[in-house]
Amino acid sequence: MTSETIWTDALHRTDPPAPSPSADPSPCATGHPVAGELAHLLFEGADRERTHGTWRTMISGRAFSYRPGLAPAERAALSYDRLRLLNDTLDDPERFAADPHRLAALHEWIGPVDGGLTTLASIHYNLFLGSLVDHDNEGRDLSAFTSMRRTGAFLCTELEHGNDVAAMETVAVYDRTSDGFHLHTPTPGAQKFMPNTSLTGGPKTAVVAARLVVDHEDHGVFLFLTPLSDHTGHLPGVTVRRLPERTGTPVDHSLTSFDHTWLPREALLEAEHGRLDRAGTLTSTLGNKRKRLLRSINRVTMGKLCMSAGTLGMARAALTIAVRYAHSRLIAGPRSGERIPVAAHRSHHSRLLDALATAYAMTFLHRTVVDRFAAHTDEDREEVERLAAIAKGWITWQARSITTECRERCGAQGLFPANGISELPANIEGGITAEGDNLVIWVKAASEMVFGHRSAASDTLPAGDLADLPFLRGLLAQVEAIWQARARTALREGPSGDPIGRWNVTSAAALEMVSAHAQLQAADALAAAAARAADPTAGLLLDSLCRLFLLRQIREHTGDLLAEGYLTPDQVRALPQTLDTVIAGLAPHMMTLVDAFDLPAEMLSAIPIASGGSIVRTMTERVPVSC
Question: Cα 80–82–85 angle (5° rounding)?
């Protein structure tokens, strides 16, 4: 089905019907057929059980329930214990590390449960084991890592080299005499920053990014398999200092350095981008150091998908909790003695519906990007990597906004960790920074797209009104085109001979272009899902969510759209009422929309405000009453 067909078909669907009495949205509405169809679409249809089922079942167990009263060190240790439980569910960890769909899905389900586990799983399975799987492995025994006798770490970022990792200083000097390497940290700024390399969690091995130096010649950055510790402590030549506690769920982040640590010849991870023969000669299919670096650390792109998946799961969990609480939390009604749910108020449910529309768009965008990543070739690698970076930035930023909104909508109850929301925004902060700081990777994408991207906007916008999805989609495409044109003009007219000055006057418009592009990709993914719906009501709900999502994005740009003649003054004036009408149509379906997120009943029943209670009521139930 083409994009044009998707948007045209949306014109022929009408608003969703109000729920019937038998489908009254209440905290017990799980199993509703519309929610089932939405879940089928959200969780990849026929592949749902294989891709998501294992992880959903896993987090239902008591081992993954909230543990109150743990000290930071105990929480960090618990995350490692859970990592081993996770590993026990895998038949083939190597094959799992090579499966983008299952790897990303894992992070969606563990994200809301344990932020520390999410970090550890991403490092062990993607960055560490995935890097080993992606390189030559003939004769290499990975059983210590697949059995979790040794936990994997990934050491790339240095204290003074983060997003400019190409300038890293750590070296691995080839020693012809021993046919091995001396791994060394030459300066304090070259210490590896924030890897989980302490003794917490047992013996560890890392893949370490370092410059391969042969006969004083720097051949660029490669990965080296490096044992760090055993049951007695850190190995000779390895120095680890624990970093102070950070925000979010605790992880044993550390500073790690090497003092001429000797590694055997087999420590070098080789592939077509670089192989070192016995004579010490490097052969490579890639002609420059930058390309070798990107190939060596190419698991960072999958890491972007893992980080965005984890925050996506957190956003959906926060919405499920907040919406359920909104329907069970009763307040004074307009009549004497009347009690109504806080969800009855537009000021409350409109914010949650905005977040729901965004969360659905985020989910379907993520599905689209993972599909493209799994099928990418050398020809479209750069485009797909850029799309993954844009999606990671947009999804993680939106997840932070959603979880913060949900926390606020739950009032004081939302401040208690036992209610499942309060720690999520801080955990999302890690996802915003990990695998490439959001702003930095967006700036890179923006620089490539100013002239290297063709906007989806057509020369003429077809006539329509604010209820027409194709018209709304066309408006958002025009927003992207407007900001791209401004960026191009700024770059052309910027100060000559001053590259930084030229980019400084361009970057604001270029970043707005990237933002509009991300929103447009998300809207397209949401509309495509609506077109696939087998249940008419599910399709109509998704259309309404798409309409709400597009109207919210367009509202921020009505000035530009009016100035360029794409909107009329009457349409701008009608926008608030149109938004209110869409929200009113969706409000009765809020519980159905979150039921489709399919969080396990066991998980929700353990969260007081998600199961019709509160922290205080839970405490009262546990206190014995004296007669």
Answer: 120
Across 30-39, 136-145, 421-430, 457-466, least confident range: 457-466
Q: How far apart are CA 120 and CA 114, in angstroms?
A: 10
Question: Are the C-beta atoms of 83 and 106 separated by less than 8 Å?
Answer: no
Q: Where are the alpha helices (DSSP H) in 494-568?
A: 499-532, 536-555, 558-563
Task: Give the closest residue to 166 by CA, choosing from 119, 113, 210.
Answer: 210
**DSSP assignment of 284-309:** -SS-SHHHHHHHHTTHHHHHHHHHHH
- Residue 145, pLDDT > 50, answer yes
Q: Which amino acid is at 88?
A: D
Tokens of 517: 């592009």
Q: What percent of the chain has pLDDT over 90?
A: 87
d(CA 509, CA 10): 31
Predicted confidence band at 27 (pLDDT cuts at 50, 70, 90)?
A: very low
> How far is residue 232's CA from residue 227's CA, in Å, rounded to a whole number?
13
CB 476 within 8 A of CB 523: yes
Distance, in Å, from the CA atom of 411 to the CA atom of 424, rounded to the nearest integer, reads: 15
As given in the structure block, the two tokens for residue 109 are 């389900």
pTM over 0.85? The answer is: yes
In 3D, which of 577, 542, 571 has the Cα closest to residue 557?
571
Instruction: Give the total residue count for the chain.
Output: 627
Between 163 and 49, residue with greater pLDDT: 49
CA 188 to chain CA mean position, Å: 32
| CB contact at 8 A, 546 and 586 | no
Residue 502 CA, chain-centre distance (Å), reads: 32
Residue linked to tokens 């046919």: 179
Look at phi and psi of residue 139 and say left if phi exceeds 0, alpha if psi is from -120 to 50, else beta: left
- Enter the DSSP assignment of 89: T
Q: For the residues 482-490, what does the mean pLDDT come to?
A: 97
> Cα(613)–Cα(154) distance, rounded to whole angstroms?
42
Q: Which DSSP string do the residues of 207-250 spell out, in sequence order?
A: EEEEEEEETTEEEEEEEEEEE-EETTEEPTTEEEEEPPP-SSS-
Tell whether the model's pLDDT for residue 397 goes beyond 80.
yes
Structure tokens at 372: 């493209």
Mean pLDDT, to the nearest integer, of 150-159?
97
pLDDT tens digit sequence for 198-222: 999 999 999 999 999 999 999 999 9
Query: Is the CB of residue 117 less than 8 Å from the CB of residue 86?
Result: yes
Residue with tokens 């044009």: 4
H helices, E strands: number in the chain = 24, 15
d(CA 21, CA 24): 5
Name every residue whose Cβ is closer than 8 Å to that of residue 492 and which is 6 or more positions away in sequence: none
